[in-house]
Amino acid sequence: MNEFDKAEQFASDTAGELPAESQNDIAEDINLNRRRLFGAIDKDSGAIQSEIDAAEQALAEQSLSPAQVIADFIRQSSLGGNIVAHSIFLAPPYSVSADDLAEIFAQINADEAYADITVNIGDNDSYYFSTESISVNYANMCVLVIEKNICKTIAEAVRFECKTYPRPYKVSMLTHSPYYFDQQQIDAAIIVIDSHPDYADIRKVEASNDEPYLFSERFMSYGKAYGLCEWLEVEQHQNP
């Protein structure tokens, strides 16, 4: 028996000892208190239910579409300096069918909200990244590294450097991000580059301190490349 029932029982037990008028007043008070109690309970229940309904609505609004999930994953990967292979979404934990995945990327391509999501077509796969975090050139280099085309990677890095800045490309940069090639890989690739017709424009040059550089004859002469690498390695330090 709860406290309300005990109080009601006590009132009922003692009411018989009082005059009829007082008994009627007690009965009326009991009924009034009962209405107040259960009215409050009903009100609280309604408020609780409203809060539950609001929470469920918020959760429903927060649920992400497949396009949002994939776009968010690509963006998060780009923030970490990584591109995302198309094949990743076909495997666990995503396990999206090829047809469904094609439809999802069609939605992404058609929606301005995903204008930063860009694709790079490699020889072995397609790769996605967000231009908000990764440049197109960096993504291009990542594709070449992932697909282990070291000679093409080096040649494209050199051509980009010579065309964009312009300056020759310091060979030791290939040991850093996003390449991380070891010296043996670099030396072997340069031997191939020296004799392959696809890379006939890529040439070597060294500063007077023997620091090796590469340059592309598409964008600069040997003399200009030598002058620039000499300045970078020696002269700028002599004339601060």
Report on the architecture of this protein.
- The structure is a single chain.
- A hairpin with a 4-residue loop joins strand 2 (117-121) and strand 3 (126-130).
- The chain is elongated.
- It has three domains: 3-62; 66-136, Winged helix-like DNA-binding domain superfamily/Winged helix DNA-binding domain (Arc Repressor Mutant, subunit A, Orthogonal Bundle), CATH 1.10.10.10; 149-238, Orthogonal Bundle (Arc Repressor Mutant, subunit A), CATH 1.10.10.
- The longest helix has 43 residues, at 20-62.
- It has helices at 3-15, 20-62, 66-79, 98-110, 136-146, 150-164, 183-195, 222-238; strands spanning 84-85, 117-121, 126-130, 169-170, 202-206, 212-216.
- The protein is mainly alpha-helical.
- Helix content is 58%, strand content 10%.
- The protein is built from eight helices and six strands, in the order αααβαββααβαββα.
- A three-stranded antiparallel β-sheet has the order 1-3-2. A three-stranded antiparallel β-sheet has the order 4-6-5.
- InterPro entries: YdhW-like.
- Residues 1-24 are annotated as: Disordered.
DSSP helix fraction: 55-70%
Distance between the termini: 92 Å
Q: For the record, what CATH class of the largest domain applies? A: Mainly Alpha
CATH topology of the largest domain: Arc Repressor Mutant, subunit A
Number of individual domains? 3
Structural class call reads mainly alpha
* CATH architectural label of the largest domain: Orthogonal Bundle
**Judging from the principal axes of the Cα atoms, what is the shape?**
elongated
Sequence stretches where pLDDT stays below 50 over 5 or more residues: none
Mean pLDDT across all residues, rounded? 85
Helix count from the secondary structure assignment: 8
Write down the Rg.
37 Å
Q: Looking across the biggest beta sheet, what order are the strands in?
A: 1-3-2
| Total number of beta strands | 6
- What is the H/E order? HHHEHEEHHEHEEH
For the largest beta-sheet, the strand count, sense and barrel status come to: 3 strands, antiparallel
